[in-house]
Amino acid sequence: MSRARRVIAGAVLFGVALVVALVPRAQKRHATASLEGGDVPAEMPAGARVASPPVAKTVPAPAPPVAAPLAATDSAMTREQKQGLARAAEAGRIAAREQKLSALDWDAARPGAPPADRRVPVSKKEGELTVAEKLEKTERIASQLQERIRRTQQAADAAAKRGEESGAEVMLLARLQSRVSELERTAQALRGEHASPETVQ
Amino acid sequence: MSSFRFLKKLAAVSSVVLVGCAGAAPDGTNDKDSPTVIVAPEQQGVVRFDVLSATSVKGSYEYHGVKLDFHAEADSLKAVTLELRGMVLTGTFEAEDGVFDLDGFNSADSSDTQMTEMDTTVIHTFEVALTDVYRARGAELPALEVLNRALTVWGDYSPTVPLRRTFYGRAERATLQNLCNKVNRVGQGSGYAPKWTWGTHDCLTIKSAWSDCAAITAGCMDGDDSSTVERCFLSMHPGGSCNDGSFFGTNASNFRCYEPDHDSNVEYSYGDCLGRCGGGCGGGTTFTQACLNHDICVRFGHIQISAECDDDVIDAAFDAAFAPSCSNVGFTVNYNWSGGSNEGKCPTSWNFTNDGCDVGCQFVDGDCFR
User: Using CB atoms, which residue from B76, B110, B196 is nearest to A174?
Assistant: First the structure.
């Protein structure tokens, strides 16, 4: 074997040995990082990860001085300076909110009801109920609305006695009554469904 | 509008002012000679209570030139009425049976109408304005509790869902699906051990033929990679300056306030009270899976008024009305960088270095949860 070949062979062997020595250490380091993270993602900033092992109970000490120039400048920032910046941020938030509000058309006429042919979403929670459960709940809320009608009627009567206009109460009464009628029709349909042999559960 | 300008000036010089609370009588009624007035922080309106008692809450709220009148009762009947912008909203709640009924109509002629963005903005901001009084007195004043619950429902209502609707569910399921144990709190774990949970939604977005949000399933299903955020940080963190207020990232140190569109690489999110029932932050502290899923739907690729999120909003509304509140979830914000030049670009030396709670950063500052 020539000298050049021996040098090359030696270099190759050294490289292989280096790889064999370093790869397991790198894997172990990666595994340790994952374990240490626990609930904390591995990408979490180091400062956050330090305190995460479940057995550690100590509250981390105040920030130690940091050597990096930028961080040193930041930590040198006084509380007053930071508060001043935070006040500027608050002013920015208020301005942004006002800008967002001013973009809306506050004088637009009230829209009508959503289009009737629009997809009516089915609630997952409602879908889990049996017909009997839904019937019971419908009857219960209809009864509560009846009580509400009674109280609204009382308020309208009292206003009329005082000689005050009670247009709002009268309108509310009409809406509540139409709602109760709808719910009673729903309950009627549910009773039929509940009694039907195909749907009894 | 001069009176409104005056109120804005008044609000600008005071964060939260409560006038007249001290006049409360033993039965919970307020002293009529000293009405309770709340000036909300950051110029978010003024609330005036005419009645603030256990069984009845009545008054008005003014914000951005809009007046909202409210009345809530809570005895054998739990009912709420709001009137704003030419619309009357009524809600009747029966918590024990797990059912409530809503209606809304044009106050001029009693005709049907629908919710608009302006309406939800005012209603939600009203909930924000009530935050302090609700947290202080909500437990002792059932009428205030009912009012606040109704506000969380209407403040996040979809304009494409009819206002007249009965909401059904099982109250016990609302309890089972709450995420209180996933909400990040002060003093949690060992120093700072953030809790994460997933949120997902289904929709008609198609991203592949067979697998993720597939054509064969007519779009995203619950749990698909592109419709799911694996690591949602549930907390009372205020919102950022972007439209939906939430921060997203591909890891826990590169959050920024924007709305990803079904991005399968984005798996981290926090901010604007993610997972809380109701629009963004407010007084209520109810966190449930349905409310988180709705937040993910409207903040991860769909707009607030998207009909594709309406099934989620209806489930979320039930939880907003009846699911239990989570206790001790509040934390003190020392520095809110949202809207400022540091938003999403805070120096890393502010992260968990015992220098106060910073929010609106590209990381979640562990100082907020010490």
Answer: B110
Question: Rounded mean pLDDT of A30-41?
Answer: 30
**In the block, which residue shows the tokens 């007519």?**
B218
Q: What is the ipTM for the molecules in this complex?
A: 0.86
- Residue A97: what residue type? R
Do the Cβ atoms of B134 and B36 come closer than 8 Å?
Answer: no
Tokens of A5: 């070949």
Burial class of residue A46 (count of CB atoms within 10 Å of its CB; 0-12, 13-18, 19+): exposed
Of B50, B61, B56, give the one whose Cα is nearest residue B78. B56
Looking at residue B4, its amino acid is F
Distance from CA of A183 to the nearest CA of B (A): 9
> CA angle at residue A155 from A150 to A159, to 5 degrees?
145
**Which residues in B130-253 belong to E strands, given as ranges?**
165-168, 197-200, 228-233, 247-249
Q: Which residue of B has its CA nearest to A75?
A: B349
User: Nearest CA to CA, how far is B251 from chain A (Å)?
Assistant: 6
b/e burial code for range B138-154 (CB count within 10 A of at least 16 → b): beebbbbbbbbbbbbbb
What is the tens place of the pLDDT at every residue in A72-94?
Answer: 455 567 888 999 999 999 999 99
The amino acid present at B34, given as its one-letter code, is: S
The minimum CA-CA distance between A148 and chain B, rounded to whole Å, is 7
Name the nearest CA neighbour of B348 among A73, A85, A59: A73
Strand partners of residue B87: B84, B106
- In the chain, the amino acid numbered B355 is D
Pick the residue from chain A with its C-alpha nearest to B370: A59
H-helix segments, chain B:
2-13, 117-129, 131-137, 142-154, 171-176, 289-299, 310-322
Beta partners for B268?
A: B231, B249
Chain A residues in contact with B196 (beta carbon < 8 A): 39, 41
Note the pTM of the prediction, 2 decimals.
0.81
Q: Are B80 and B98 in contact (CB under 8 A)?
A: no
CB B20 within 8 A of CB B37: yes
Residues B318, A125: C-beta atoms closer than 8 Å = yes
Q: What is the pLDDT of residue B191?
A: 76
Please indicate whether, in this complex, the C-beta atoms of B339 and A96 are within 8 angstroms of each other.
Answer: yes
For residue A166, how many other CB atoms are within 10 A of its CB? 18
Q: How far apart are CA A62 and CA B319, in angstroms?
A: 41
DSSP B297-362: HHHTTS-TT-GGGHHHHHHHHHHHHHSPPPSS-----SEE-TTSTTTT---GGGSSSSS--EESSS
